[in-house]
Write a structure and sequence with these properties.
By secondary structure, this protein is of the alpha/beta class. It has a single domain, classed as 2-Layer Sandwich (Nucleotidyltransferase, domain 5), CATH 3.30.420.140. Helix content is 47%, strand content 25%. It contains 4 helices and 5 strands; from the N terminus they run E-E-E-H-E-H-E-H-H. It has a 5-stranded mixed beta sheet with strand order 3-2-1-4-5, sandwiched between helices. Strand 4, helix 2 and strand 5 form a beta-alpha-beta unit. Helix 3 crosses helix 4. The two termini are 20 Å apart.
């Protein structure tokens, strides 16, 4: 089962795709946000091209576990995707962007390249977390 991980930002959408077996996530691309309709069409095209069966959206909880404006923006984005008819699942993505940034810094990636890579790497972390939780649930 193919899953598409989405890191929702106000300027960019980071995307990651699972392998067909639903075991591993890989960074896919970054979409620059221009309008809700274009965001929807971009996600629709990618979902069709890769035969995506589920959308996984990172939900950026506050560190105390509450939902703030960023989490509400992610939920609003999920509602935008309803016309696709695909199930949407949320996963706690606290610190995924910070982890992605740390990985890129450790890899000595230049600042101008980090911004583009960070969003799709964060989406990959979000999706891999979801895949791992799903696999643990299947073994229980």
């Amino acid at each position: 089962m193919r899953a598409l991980g989405i890191d929702v930002g106000s300027v960019r959408l980071g995307l990651a795709l699972s392998d067909p077996l639903g075991m591993a996530a890989q960074p896919l691309e970054v979409i620059r946000r221009t309008s809700p309709q274009r965001d929807l069409e971009a996600i629709r095209a990618i979902a069709l091209q890769h035969e995506v069966e589920v959308l996984v959206i990172g939900l950026p909880y506050n560190m105390n576990g509450s939902e703030g404006p960023a989490a509400q923006a992610a939920r609003d984005f999920a509602r935008l995707l309803e016309p696709l008819g695909l199930p949407v699942e949320f996963i706690d993505e606290r610190a995924s962007t910070m982890i992605a940034e740390a990985v890129l810094l450790e890899g000595d990636v230049r600042r101008d390249k980090r911004k583009h890579l960070r969003d799709k790497l964060a989406a990959s972390i979000i999706l891999q977390t979801w895949l791992d939780q799903r696999a643990r649930g299947a073994r229980a």
